[in-house]
Write a structure and sequence with these properties.
Largest sheet: 11 strands, mixed
Number of strands: 13
Shape: globular
Radius of gyration: 22 Å
């Protein structure tokens, strides 16, 4: 590589780093959500657990956009328990690392017309599990750059710089070497993946660990959304930026989203949930999300300040209201979490119990309570085992 080409690559990396803003960076999102909170919320909400499905301890994704991997791997760990297996904390960063490799290949194939950053989707975890297997978090933590928690901004900027330089195609024809360079850059930050490892006295590869220890079949899981622009009960491409692989999800009616979750939870199946958490009526600090009767801009200062001071009346969400919010960017694909139960407040309203991956610093030590109206309104998609679907719906979807 001559001096000019080296300078061009360095410049591309530097510019990418300077401009890079991680779409799903936890720190920015959590800091923003600290603004909509109440000091009195926990004493004024009285939640009673109705169903509590076994799940593994709360994790912290750090400064990384890996919620999709943390929530989907948490979901798989609960699936292990549902199947009678002892759960293992799976390496969330192993799933993410492999997804970044595949996303880089897609970015180059698409000549840069794919979203970069460290965001992703539930199907990425299943697709990577299918292709690369799995390993314990204790074997591959991804902490290879001097920090005790994920901190991905620098790595993501380097990834973007390399990929943009490749797409710029300074040689006029791509060589296979770019893949080695790109993979090496990721591994420099996350660590090289062992081809074999020992766990509890036995040697495994990622593929044999997935088969013999984890034991799920990734083909048994379905993703479901609701969009008025597509035929019911068929598949459609979920049009969100982080669906870089253009995977499809099943389309159902809005009310069927909560019907599915209810049926799954009541029959022992947890559900991975993706959706919008940027609304002022989503409070991470207070661990509550609901749909108030008034829009934020129509509330008085007193109503805003007291929004999480105990249960409030909700708007009735309609399919048209949901669709409009998605189409005008009011609903965005911000975050992935894990639905692990159902609870009721003192007025009898049901909430889904949500396991987050932002540590244990909120009122409920990392868990949240989300109303069904919020789920109807702000869900982008869900993932669950096909046997968790209601029988009639399973037939309609032909799964």
């Amino acid at each position: 590589m001559n001096k000019n080409k080296i300078q061009a690559l360095v410049l591309a990396v530097a510019l990418a780093f300077a401009a890079y803003t991680p779409t799903y960076a936890q720190d920015n999102l959590v800091n923003a959500l600290k603004l909509n909170a109440s000091d009195k919320s926990k004493e004024l909400y009285q939640f009673r657990t109705v169903i509590d499905i076994e799940n593994t301890p709360i994790k912290n994704q750090g400064s990384s956009g890996t919620c999709w991997s943390y929530s989907a791997n948490s979901f798989i760990e609960s699936e292990m328990m549902r199947m009678g297996k002892r759960p293992v904390e799976l390496s969330q960063i192993y799933s993410a690392r492999n997804s970044y490799i595949e996303k880089g290949k897609m970015y180059v194939r698409m000549q840069g017309a794919v979203t970069l950053g460290d965001g992703g989707a539930f199907h990425d975890v299943m697709n990577m599990y299918r292709k690369y297997g799995a390993m314990p978090q204790s074997v591959y933590s991804g902490l290879n750059y001097g920090t005790t928690k994920n901190k991905f901004a620098e790595m993501a900027a380097i990834q973007e710089g390399i990929l943009k330089a490749v797409v710029a195609n300074p040689n006029g024809k791509l060589t296979p070497n770019w893949e080695k360079a790109y993979t090496s850059a990721i591994d420099a930050y996350l660590g090289e993946v062992p081809t074999k490892f020992k766990w509890e006295g036995k040697e495994y590869t990622p593929e044999t660990f997935a088969k013999e220890v984890v034991g799920i079949n990734p083909n048994d899981y379905v993703e479901i959304g609701s969009d008025l622009n597509y035929p019911l009960y068929d598949k459609f491409v979920l049009l969100v930026p982080d669906n870089w692989s253009f995977d499809q999800v099943y389309n159902v009616k809005m009310n069927e989203l909560t019907d599915i979750i209810d049926h799954a939870i009541k029959n022992g199946f947890t559900v991975a949930w993706a959706g919008d958490v940027s609304e002022k009526y989503f409070s991470w600090k207070n661990g509550v999300a609901f749909v108030p009767e008034k829009e934020w801009e129509d509330m008085t200062p007193e109503e805003r300040d007291g929004m999480f001071n105990g249960p409030k009346q909700e708007r009735k969400v309609t399919p048209e209201m949901r669709q409009e919010a998605f189409d005008n960017y009011s609903t965005t694909d911000d975050h992935g979490m894990h639905i692990v139960g159902i609870a009721k407040d003192q007025n009898g309203r049901e909430y889904y119990v949500i396991k987050n991956s932002w540590g244990v610093t909120n009122d409920y030590k990392g868990y949240m309570y989300m109303t069904k109206e919020y789920v109807k309104y702000k869900t982008t998609d869900i993932m669950l085992h096909k046997d968790g679907l209601p029988k009639e719906l399973k037939s309609k979807l032909k799964v």
